[in-house]
Amino acid sequence: MKTDIEIAQEAKTEHILKIAQKLGLTEDEIEYYGRDKAKVSLSVMERPRRGSKLILVTAITPTPAGEGKTTTTIGLADGLSLLGKRAVVAIREPSLGPVFGVKGGAAGGGYAQVVPMEDINLHFTGDIHAVGAANNLLAAMIDNHIFQGNELGIDPGKISWKRCVDMNDRQLRFIEDGLGGGKNGVPRRDGYDITVASEVMAILCLATSLSDLKDRLSRIVVGYTYGGAPVTAGDLKAAGAMAALLKEALKPNLVQTLEGTPALVHGGPFANIAHGCNSVIATKTALALGDYVVTEAGFGADLGAEKFFDIKCRAAGLKPSAVVVVATVRALKMHGGAPKADLAREDVDALRRGLPNLLRHLSNIKNVYHLPVAVAINRFPADTDAEISLITEACRDVGADVALSTVWAEGGKDGLALAEKVVELCEEENHFTYCYDEKAPIREKISAVATKIYGGSGVEFTPDAEEQIDRLEALGFGELPVCMAKTQYSFSDDPTKLGAPEGFFITVREVKVSAGAGFVVALTGNVMTMPGLPKDPAACRIDVDGEGKIKGLF
User: Fold this and answer.
1) How far is CA 526 from CA 4, 490, 508, in A?
2) H/E run at residue 270
């Protein structure tokens, strides 16, 4: 069996100009990054909408068994193309952290991939590096301001802005820097986030223009004065230089699927610690160019989809037309208590115990957000007819259509059934609503997500979180949406609680503002903004031969 990278490397792709021309783009509206990548002009986003349909692909709560959300997203778009629809993929850029860690890349898999797979999973067009440079420029300017006399009166003990690097590196979570005294800086406690958790990444993905980008950057709160007043990047006169570093990164990247469907791959915030969506600019550009835009949001629907609806759609004025929830028999059996080693064996009882996880996600889409939804069962060879039938019947009992998908092995032709269902769903009238009123108090918004989306009984706030919420509301940040930083492995904040747990309380330990991005972040449980590498990282299996051919990426 060929690996993902072998399939991608053997593909015969079209020149990126031909892909652009499929969308009605002229050569003047793209900037080449070699033969198979291009940046798209920001002006394209301003074209009149084509009455396009926006489809979100999300998933059940992830497990080590895998779900295949990105693969399904790409296969669905290829299936829509085979139906004669003008389809565009709009997804996130992969972070180097997961690529070299445990998750691998985020360019799809098998015969449902975006290419060039190696470039997309590694440096691509340099967007994530630009985000890191802008983030770290601001960090340097904060410390330099203090060193040069601290005119703004910044309290070094209340600096909230961290440096970042696009790699999983637990060693950098808590550090002390500026050591040595004198001209070597002002000693203080510091730390690093992974670049895709940086507020700069969130801002890049929510900005609608270069001027909006600059305004958002200037609103970043980097810390507080000795008197408790917030200090912003604008106060430090850093926003202009940061925007200069991000000017090219703001433009969406055009690539293609293995079957030649146009794809915009742009921005990459994590969904368990950021908002988990590709850029507003890429999505609006896709809506200006295509009839059907297939996008995704990170991790399960309780994280990525919730933030897509309550943060991205709210901020950008987007209205989704339909939702696809990806599920696998294997993952649902794990939610039902089956060990990973036994997933190839039929186990209808474990599957039945795990089904409530899928059904809760479906209920949220239908009953909280009021959107039409279909289930894509990403079928594996060991899945039995009895297991598939059980999922199908359970979904139909709650009014959700089901389509089998084997796009990993077959490509777009096996995405046709799902594509046909999605076209039907897009014609249904929907009454899209949000989970909460953004003008509600911060505690009320957090509670709404915890009870209505997670299925919990309520929220417990630590004393620090209580104090932080009171301060943020007093400073005027109370009417911002909330971005929940939570484990991706459970509806709760405990990763060991699989399925659809009940009777639990979410513990919020810290609340901080991302004023430039336009939301308040609530950190729950033990979620980290800087992941670590696993015992056996994927990096150990990645190599390049003497001819420059990369191996081991997945």
Assistant:
1) 33, 13, 10
2) none
What does the CA dihedral 194, 164, 217, 265 come to, rounded to 10 degrees?
Answer: -50
Instruction: Provide the strand spans (E) within 199-290.
Output: 221-225, 230-232, 253-257, 262-265
Residue written as token pair 């995704």:
296
Task: Over range 489-505, report the average pLDDT.
Answer: 96
Q: Where residue 182 falls among pLDDT bands split at 50, 70, 90?
A: confident
Arithmetic mean of pLDDT, 5-34: 95
Cβ count near 165 (within 10 Å) = 17
For the record, the structure tokens of 39 come out as: 């940046």
DSSP state at residue 60: S
Q: What is the band of 65 on the pLDDT scale with cuts at 50, 70, 90?
A: confident
Per-residue pLDDT at 302 exceeds 90: yes
Question: Cβ contacts of residue 254 below 8 Å, gap of 6+?
Answer: 16, 19, 20, 25, 30, 37, 38, 39, 40, 262, 263, 264
Q: Kindly list the catalytic residues.
A: 69, 71, 92, 103, 271, 299, 380, 408
> Which tokens in the block code for residue 368?
């909280």
Please, are residues 47 and 25 in contact by the beta-carbon 8 Å criterion? no
For residue 505, the cross-strand partners are 458
Residue 104 — pLDDT band, cuts 50, 70, 90? confident
Residue 436 has pLDDT above 80, yes or no: yes
Task: State the Cα angle at 71 between 299 and 356, rounded to 5°.
Answer: 45
326 phi and psi, to 5 degrees? -90, 135
Q: Could you list the beta-strand ranges (E) of 291-348.
A: 292-296, 322-327
Say whether pLDDT at 137 is over 80.
yes
Q: By percentage, how much of the chain surpasses pLDDT 90?
A: 93
Identify the residue whose tokens are 């990763």. Answer: 495
- What pLDDT does residue 67 have? 85
Average model confidence (pLDDT) across the chain: 96
Q: How far apart are CA 508 and CA 489, in angstroms?
A: 17
Distance CA 111, CA 552 (A): 17
- Mean pLDDT, rounded, for 423-445: 97
Residue 492 · residue 454 · CB < 8 Å: yes
Q: Which strands sit side by side in the sheet containing 230-232, from one edge to the other? A: 154-159, 221-225, 230-232
Distance CA 251, CA 376 (A): 32
Mean pLDDT over 375-397 rounds to: 96
Q: How far apart are CA 419 and CA 9, in angstroms?
A: 27
Cβ-based neighbours of 80, under 8 Å, separated by 6 or more: 87, 261, 292, 294, 415, 419, 422, 423
For the stretch 260-290, what's the b/e string if a residue is b when 16 or more beta carbons lie within 10 angstroms of its beta carbon? bbbbbbbbbbbbbbbbbbbbbbbbbbbbbbb
